[in-house]
Amino acid sequence: MKIVIANDHGAVALKFRLVKWLESQGHQVVNLGIDTEDRVDYPDQAELAVQEYFRGGYDFGIVCCGTGIGISIAANRHKGIRCALIHDSYTARMAKEHNNANFVAFGGRGEYVEPVEQILGVYMNAKFEGGRHATRVAKLDTIC
Ligand code: RB5
Fold first, then answer.
1. CA of 22 relative to ligand 1 center, distance in Å
2. What is the number of structural domains in the chain?
3. Which of 53, 67, 105, 120 is most deeply buried (CB count within 10 A of its CB)?
């Protein structure tokens, strides 16, 4: 898969951890996030990832900030982006099966009950169920 990732200063270590794992699995990752803990604004970091995703050729995007909240909100301001702030294997699977999320968000300053690699892997291996969920997902783009 080809994946774009961006982060703010609250998730530098987490970003590197996800990139390392993705590359070890043979995926191509374009890292547009900050690699140091110099302060940057999460809306700007989300913008970088989303605009790159819109260039095409990507399977999905990842955005990370301290909580994952701000950067997921920012990503979701863009029409066509369905960014899921996933917490565990269950929310990771549902993000794809029901919401067809094309972005996922993580927080670098919190605790996860499962390894983040496992959570991300569940999302990546899940399949959108379509059907009634496709109708609902289509309605999202009529909102903004
Ligand atoms: C930055 O301090 C922090 O506010 C940001 O990373 C994120 O948690 C916002 O939602």
1. 24
2. 1
3. 105
